[in-house]
Every structure is written in structure tokens, then in C-alpha cells.
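Hi R.,

Here's the chain you asked about this morning:
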Amino acid sequence: MNTEQIPVSIITGFLGAGKTTLINKIIEKEPDKKFAVIENEFSDMPIDGELISGLTDNRVFELANGCICCTLGTELQETLQQLLNMNLDFNHLLIETTGIAEPDSIIQNIIANDDIKQSFIIQTVCCVVDAVHFETHIKEKENVKQLVVADTVILTKTENLSVGDLEKIKNQIKAYNPLCDIVEAVYGDYGDFDLTGGAFFNEDNFKGLFTEIALKHSHEHEHHHEMATIGIQINGNFDMKKFSFWMDYFLYINQNSIYRVKGILSFEGLSRKMIFQAVKSAYVIEEGNFWQSDEERISKLIFIGKNLDKQAINDGLKELIVMN
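And the predicted structure, written out as C-alpha cells:
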């Protein structure tokens, strides 16, 4: 590896599989590395940057309101150039894509640009796979492409499955991608695997694969039009019991149309921001950073799915705010 080139880890994977959790774990496990992060969201209200812990704001760059693999190819290149021009002291770049991105185009944006290639080198393409929802997710062509181009697969939520079920999933993954490394993560922790220390990505192998993918790309690359993303901001504090009851019911009756919900919430009586993550009808709420004394309490939620009624969702959430 050319020491003048900054290694790049591309983190792709299924909706709700735990990509941001993985990035936080990488930063936690590698305190001696100086990371910069590029976040891409298929929404006009970016929040993923706020979910990254352990880095100052000037090390997290957000590309919003489009998918990095198509509409934001130019913006990605501009952001990479900006990173170089601003003299930011970093020695490893993490790029997190949306759950519906096709990483072949992202890779091509980097390796086909001579100016970028002089400064950056792709070290690994990591696909984060939700073991619990694997059978459903693998039916989506975007997820297949994410799996096929990856050199490393992080299999998450393995604590919820039996050894036999995990072996079946790993065999299916190997059928799609025989050369990838498969790493099991338990509660988001991928163990001792050195995810940022080796050179796993093989450009020659990718170029042969890219030619095959590109033949189908123009005919199949319409996934975003099948899916909608809405962002909602609510001022004030939620009532925890009312919110939990409402969300349980909402996700249950919409489990066939809601793929993913994520957000940062403010609850009455709690001094910390609460991080909300949902896949289908299952969700978790975890503690985040403290609210600052001069910070306005605004909850932000991103809904990803089909046939979303923004007004109805917004009206329903407003009913859960504690009135002072």
C-alpha cells in the first residue's frame, strides 16, 4: 500500500443491519487511528452524523437527499477533494452508504478518478448483514449487489439465532460470494477481527465483476422510486409510555410497508437524547449524548418504506408530546 494514500473502508449493507453501530464500534476499538466519516442518507433531514460517537463534528460529513451510488456521485468526489483541501488530520476514511445503495458505483467513483486515486485507496468493502431478516432482505436486488461486491461480511444479530440457522445463512452468503470473509457480530461487537488493518479489497477482481454488473445497471437501477423516505421533526418532549404504545401499534400494522425507522428522541424527565432504531416491527431505544443546557429539545425521526403518509405520522406523533 502506498503510504501517501489514505485507506478507505466502505460500509454498506441491509437497511437496519447496524452500519452506524459498526462504525461506532470501529472508532471505539481503534483509538489510535484518526478517522473521518462520510455519511449518506436517502433523506432531506440527515441525522446519521448525530449518531456517530467519538468524533468531533468537523470529522463527519453528510451527503443527504439522494443516494450516493447515483445522484451524489459528483458530490462524493467533491467531498473527498474537500477533505484533502481542508488539511484535516486523518489517516483513515469510513464511508457509510444508505441501505439501498449499490456499492459498485461508489467503488467505481473512487478507482476511476485518477486525482482521487492518488490520495485514497479502498482497503475494504464491508457488507453488514442482518441475520434475523436475511431471508427477506436477500430478495432485494440492491442487497444482493451489496453482498456480491463485499470482501468482508459482518453478520449482525447472531445472538438471536441458533448455530444451525447461522450456518445455513453463512452457506447462502458463500453461494453469492465465495471469496468473502464472514465475521459474526454479537450485540454489535465483531470481536478481534482486524477490520481496518488489512488490505482486503482486490481491484482486479472488482473490475471483472463491475463489467458484469454494469450491463444490467441501466435497466435495474430504479430502486429508489419504489421506496420513500420522510423526515419528521417534533418540538418538545415525548411521553415515554404514550410513545412506546403508539410506536408498537404503528410498526405492527405497517410491518409490510415500513422497512426502517431511526431517530433521536427527547423524552420528558430524561436528560439524555434517546436513540431510536427499528427494523420492520422490532425496535430498540438506547441512551445517547446528554442534551446541552442551551440546546432546543427537538426529536427527529426518519421513516423508510412504501406508501408513507407523512401528515398522518406527523399528527400522530404530535399527540404524544407532553403539554406544559
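The chain has eleven helices and twelve strands.

Let me know if you need anything else.
M.
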